[in-house]
Protein backbone atom coordinates (compact mmCIF):
# COMPACT_ATOMS: atom_id res chain seq x y z
CA UNK A 1 0.00 0.00 0.00
CA UNK A 2 1.48 3.31 -0.98
CA UNK A 3 -0.43 6.00 0.69
CA UNK A 4 0.83 9.51 0.64
CA UNK A 5 1.25 10.70 4.13
CA UNK A 6 -0.88 13.77 4.07
CA UNK A 7 -0.68 15.94 7.06
CA UNK A 8 -2.86 18.88 7.91
CA UNK A 9 0.04 20.21 9.92
CA UNK A 10 1.62 21.39 6.69
CA UNK A 11 0.51 24.68 5.26
CA UNK A 12 1.52 26.85 2.35
CA UNK A 13 2.80 30.31 2.95
CA UNK A 14 4.04 33.03 0.66
CA UNK A 15 7.47 34.40 1.21
CA UNK A 16 7.12 38.10 2.07
CA UNK A 17 10.38 38.86 0.27
CA UNK A 18 10.29 37.00 -3.03
CA UNK A 19 6.62 35.97 -2.98
CA UNK A 20 7.60 32.41 -3.69
CA UNK A 21 5.37 29.80 -2.15
CA UNK A 22 6.63 27.18 0.22
CA UNK A 23 5.19 24.49 2.43
CA UNK A 24 5.92 24.69 6.12
CA UNK A 25 4.83 22.96 9.25
CA UNK A 26 2.31 24.97 11.22
CA UNK A 27 4.51 24.38 14.24
CA UNK A 28 7.48 25.94 12.50
CA UNK A 29 8.31 29.37 13.88
CA UNK A 30 10.81 30.51 11.30
CA UNK A 31 12.50 29.10 8.27
CA UNK A 32 14.86 30.30 5.57
CA UNK A 33 13.03 30.72 2.27
CA UNK A 34 13.86 27.94 -0.17
CA UNK A 35 13.72 30.42 -3.06
CA UNK A 36 15.54 33.49 -1.81
CA UNK A 37 17.16 32.10 1.36
CA UNK A 38 15.92 34.99 3.42
CA UNK A 39 14.67 34.34 6.90
CA UNK A 40 10.88 34.16 7.14
CA UNK A 41 9.06 34.65 10.42
CA UNK A 42 6.49 31.90 9.89
CA UNK A 43 4.81 32.40 13.20
CA UNK A 44 3.99 35.99 12.35
CA UNK A 45 2.55 35.02 8.99
CA UNK A 46 0.39 32.25 10.44
CA UNK A 47 -0.82 34.22 13.44
CA UNK A 48 -0.30 37.92 12.89
CA UNK A 49 0.31 40.06 15.94
CA UNK A 50 -2.86 41.25 17.57
CA UNK A 51 -4.17 44.48 16.21
CA UNK A 52 -4.54 47.41 18.52
CA UNK A 53 -8.02 46.89 19.77
CA UNK A 54 -10.57 49.55 20.28
CA UNK A 55 -12.87 49.09 23.20
CA UNK A 56 -16.47 49.99 22.37
CA UNK A 57 -17.74 53.17 24.02
CA UNK A 58 -19.48 52.61 27.34
CA UNK A 59 -17.83 49.30 27.96
CA UNK A 60 -14.80 48.14 29.79
CA UNK A 61 -12.58 45.22 29.20
CA UNK A 62 -11.97 42.59 31.82
CA UNK A 63 -10.32 39.23 31.88
CA UNK A 64 -12.62 36.39 32.86
CA UNK A 65 -11.64 35.03 36.28
CA UNK A 66 -12.24 31.49 35.18
CA UNK A 67 -10.91 31.16 31.65
CA UNK A 68 -8.78 34.31 31.46
CA UNK A 69 -10.21 35.48 28.15
CA UNK A 70 -11.01 39.10 27.43
CA UNK A 71 -14.62 40.03 27.71
CA UNK A 72 -16.45 43.33 27.43
CA UNK A 73 -18.78 44.57 30.05
CA UNK A 74 -21.07 47.54 30.27
CA UNK A 75 -19.41 50.23 32.35
CA UNK A 76 -22.36 50.37 34.71
CA UNK A 77 -22.98 46.65 34.95
CA UNK A 78 -22.60 44.91 38.28
CA UNK A 79 -21.67 41.60 36.73
CA UNK A 80 -20.98 40.09 33.36
CA UNK A 81 -21.19 36.52 32.16
CA UNK A 82 -18.25 35.28 30.19
CA UNK A 83 -19.16 34.64 26.58
CA UNK A 84 -16.70 31.77 26.47
CA UNK A 85 -17.16 29.80 29.68
CA UNK A 86 -20.35 31.39 31.12
CA UNK A 87 -18.60 32.16 34.36
CA UNK A 88 -20.25 35.04 36.18
CA UNK A 89 -17.73 37.80 36.71
CA UNK A 90 -18.49 40.21 39.49
CA UNK A 91 -17.91 43.85 38.57
CA UNK A 92 -19.23 45.55 41.64
CA UNK A 93 -17.29 47.55 44.15
CA UNK A 94 -17.16 46.37 47.73
CA UNK A 95 -17.03 48.78 50.62
CA UNK A 96 -16.59 46.43 53.50
CA UNK A 97 -15.59 46.27 57.08
CA UNK A 98 -14.90 42.57 57.03
CA UNK A 99 -15.14 39.50 54.89
CA UNK A 100 -15.64 36.23 56.63
CA UNK A 101 -15.55 32.75 55.27
CA UNK A 102 -15.48 33.45 51.59
CA UNK A 103 -13.05 34.40 48.94
CA UNK A 104 -13.66 37.65 47.21
CA UNK A 105 -13.44 37.91 43.46
CA UNK A 106 -14.48 41.05 41.64
CA UNK A 107 -13.26 43.24 38.84
CA UNK A 108 -14.46 46.22 40.84
CA UNK A 109 -12.71 47.98 43.67
CA UNK A 110 -12.38 46.70 47.19
CA UNK A 111 -12.50 49.38 49.86
CA UNK A 112 -11.56 48.07 53.24
CA UNK A 113 -12.85 50.52 55.79
CA UNK A 114 -10.93 51.89 58.68
CA UNK A 115 -10.60 49.35 61.51
CA UNK A 116 -11.98 46.69 59.22
CA UNK A 117 -10.32 43.29 59.05
CA UNK A 118 -10.05 40.70 56.35
CA UNK A 119 -8.71 37.28 57.24
CA UNK A 120 -8.85 35.43 54.04
CA UNK A 121 -6.86 33.16 51.86
CA UNK A 122 -7.47 34.84 48.58
CA UNK A 123 -8.76 38.18 47.42
CA UNK A 124 -8.81 38.88 43.71
CA UNK A 125 -10.02 42.32 42.77
CA UNK A 126 -9.69 45.04 40.15
CA UNK A 127 -8.29 47.60 42.54
CA UNK A 128 -8.01 47.80 46.29
CA UNK A 129 -8.02 50.68 48.72
CA UNK A 130 -7.05 49.54 52.17
CA UNK A 131 -7.74 51.46 55.34
CA UNK A 132 -8.12 48.40 57.51
CA UNK A 133 -6.13 45.26 58.07
CA UNK A 134 -5.67 42.31 55.74
CA UNK A 135 -4.11 39.03 56.78
CA UNK A 136 -3.68 37.06 53.64
CA UNK A 137 -2.93 37.31 49.98
CA UNK A 138 -4.26 40.11 47.86
CA UNK A 139 -4.27 40.15 44.09
CA UNK A 140 -5.36 43.22 42.15
CA UNK A 141 -5.34 43.57 38.39
CA UNK A 142 -4.78 47.29 38.90
CA UNK A 143 -3.65 49.34 41.85
CA UNK A 144 -3.38 48.50 45.52
CA UNK A 145 -3.39 51.53 47.78
CA UNK A 146 -2.63 51.14 51.44
CA UNK A 147 -3.78 54.30 53.14
CA UNK A 148 -2.99 55.64 56.57
CA UNK A 149 -4.08 53.06 59.17
CA UNK A 150 -4.09 50.41 56.47
CA UNK A 151 -2.15 47.21 57.14
CA UNK A 152 -1.46 44.27 54.86
CA UNK A 153 0.33 41.16 56.05
CA UNK A 154 0.82 38.74 53.22
CA UNK A 155 1.54 38.63 49.55
CA UNK A 156 0.39 41.38 47.23
CA UNK A 157 0.17 40.90 43.49
CA UNK A 158 -0.70 44.02 41.52
CA UNK A 159 0.30 46.38 38.74
CA UNK A 160 0.89 49.30 41.04
CA UNK A 161 1.40 49.45 44.77
CA UNK A 162 1.02 52.64 46.72
CA UNK A 163 1.71 52.67 50.43
CA UNK A 164 0.72 55.99 51.92
CA UNK A 165 2.36 57.49 54.94
CA UNK A 166 1.04 55.62 57.97
CA UNK A 167 0.24 52.52 55.94
CA UNK A 168 1.92 49.22 56.75
CA UNK A 169 2.83 46.46 54.39
CA UNK A 170 4.72 43.39 55.52
CA UNK A 171 5.21 40.61 53.08
CA UNK A 172 6.18 40.12 49.50
CA UNK A 173 4.99 41.84 46.40
CA UNK A 174 4.82 40.65 42.84
CA UNK A 175 4.26 43.19 40.11
CA UNK A 176 2.11 42.33 37.12
CA UNK A 177 3.68 43.61 33.97
CA UNK A 178 1.31 45.77 31.97
CA UNK A 179 3.13 45.11 28.72
CA UNK A 180 3.47 41.39 29.24
CA UNK A 181 2.13 39.50 26.27
CA UNK A 182 1.56 36.39 28.31
ZN1 LIG B 1 11.79 34.00 -0.56
ZN1 LIG C 1 -14.54 32.72 30.89
Topology:
Elements: E1 10-14, E2 21-25, E3 30-32, E4 39-41, H1 42-46, E5 59-63, E6 70-74, E7 79-81, E8 88-90, E9 94-99, E10 104-105, E11 109-125, E12 127-130, E13 133-140, E14 143-146, E15 151-158, E16 160-163, E17 168-175
Parallel strand pairs: 9-11, 10-11, 11-12, 11-13, 12-14, 13-15, 14-16, 15-17
Antiparallel strand pairs: 1-2, 3-4, 5-6, 7-8
Explain the overall architecture.
- The protein is an all-beta fold.
- It has three domains: 10-46, no CATH class; 59-89, no CATH class; 93-175, no CATH class.
- It is 3% helix and 51% strand.
- The protein is built from one helix and 17 strands.
- It has one helix spanning 42-46, and strands at 10-14, 21-25, 30-32, 39-41, 59-63, 70-74, 79-81, 88-90, 94-99, 104-105, 109-125, 127-130, 133-140, 143-146, 151-158, 160-163, 168-175.
- Strands 9, 10, 11, 12, 13, 14, 15, 16 and 17 form a nine-stranded parallel sheet that branches. Strands 1-2 form a two-stranded antiparallel sheet. Strands 3-4 form a two-stranded antiparallel sheet.
- A hairpin with a 6-residue loop joins strand 1 (10-14) and strand 2 (21-25).
- The longest helix is centred in the N-terminal third of the chain and has 5 residues, at 42-46.
- The radius of gyration is 24 Å and the shape is elongated.
- The relative contact order is 0.08.
- Residues 15, 17-18, 20, 33, 35-36, 38 line the site of one zinc ion.
- One zinc ion (ZN) binds next to loops.
